[in-house]
Amino acid sequence: MSEPLVIVGNGMAAARLVDELAKVALGRYAIAVIGEEPRLAYNRVLLSSVLAGETTSQDIELRPASWWSERGVTLKYGCRATAIDVGRRELKVAGGERIPFSKLVLTTGSSALRLNVPGADIAGVHTFRDSRDVDLLLALASRKQRVVVVGGGLLGLEAAYGLAKAGSPVTLIHLMDRLMERQLDAPAAALLKSLVERKGIEILLGANTARIVGETRVEGVELADGRRIDAEAVIFAAGIRPNTALAMEAGIAVNRGIVVDDHLQTDAADIFAIGECAEHRGICYGLVEPAYEQGRVLARYLSGREASYAGSTVATNLKVSGVSVFSAGDFMGGEGSEAIVLTDINRGTYKKLVITNGRLIGAVLIGDVGDALWYLELIRTRQPTQRIRADMMFGRSLALRSEAA
Ligand SMILES: Cc1cc2nc3c(=O)[nH]c(=O)nc-3n(C[C@H](O)[C@H](O)[C@H](O)COP(=O)(O)OP(=O)(O)OC[C@H]3O[C@@H](n4cnc5c(N)ncnc54)[C@H](O)[C@@H]3O)c2cc1C
Question: Best of 138, 149, 288, 292 to mutate for ligand 1, by most ligand atoms within 8 A of CB?
């Protein structure tokens, strides 16, 4: 008889795990997926495209209902898991039902952080995490409401771009002195800023949110230096927090995320965690690729094969507000490293490759990202690059041609 395997969360990590399990352990488990959002799993990354009007909410579904049923998966969506009884191996869900499991996988993702400032909970303050948020933001934009987006990372830029494209006047405020400071060095961030500003978005750096102005509804944002920006809505896009409450209340070890070992197992036997809710070797990844790698490893492990997860080399390769951006590895460099840089501001291009001991260790690209995956492979495989160094900046085909010559 198939063992009951229950997955909590119906997001991107859950969908990938089911996909991988179907490949390597078909029939071994009777899988049930419990998801709070009232719809089939969708590609959360593409919420930005939905907001920008480039695709529709229906078109971002990861798999049709038939795909899940063909794999024998019991899907309960619109259903929140409320407690784990570790000793009895039961999951409790809203409404009181208890679902027995032999293996449990937590894929509860993250929630958007709301800044702890006065006014943060009044009407007109929103976040950008799920498809309900996008519906709300699209409604704001259709009324051409003035919006302040708090946060100049990927999410803030995407929210600002989508809202501006949909017709809202947008001001983006960011605490740091440059955009996407975790992915970009100063010249790349400055170029990105000017390219985004060309799309009609006002950007204020070094801007510390002191409070949201308004009695019952948002009227604006006041900064710590006294400046005030009038607006009818505020979007918080200043970070995420892993959803760990379910694990914590069950007595499972939690740090920032749910702590897992190299088998993605928590400190409770047969209870695993992957995706944004998990913390592996001290790292909570906020990106989809590590979640997919973890799903692949966990499926193999659950199929009885040898498999372990050693962490992911994080790369950012995406369109931010319509601008192609790639960043990977140690893109700042340090003592003993050297950087090759090519800039063409008018064409909106910036390329930086960081080399240590004859190996590529990091890269940042703005505009022309055609060779991003090749650079990522060089970083991940730590190949010696002396023989291609002269042409490496100009892309894979030229560099490999001169290596062969
Ligand atoms: C707008 C946006 C753009 C993004 N762009 C990129 C990008 O370009 N590149 C990139 O790599 N990453 C991007 N990300 C991040 C990426 O979407 C996440 O890394 C990925 O979705 C993580 O997958 P997950 O399954 O861990 O979490 P999620 O996809 O968030 O899924 C978690 C699910 O668990 C459910 N859940 C939580 N608690 C419970 C409970 N108690 N009971 C039942 N269900 C529960 C949640 O409702 C949710 O549906 C973006 C995110 C957003 C919001």
Answer: 288
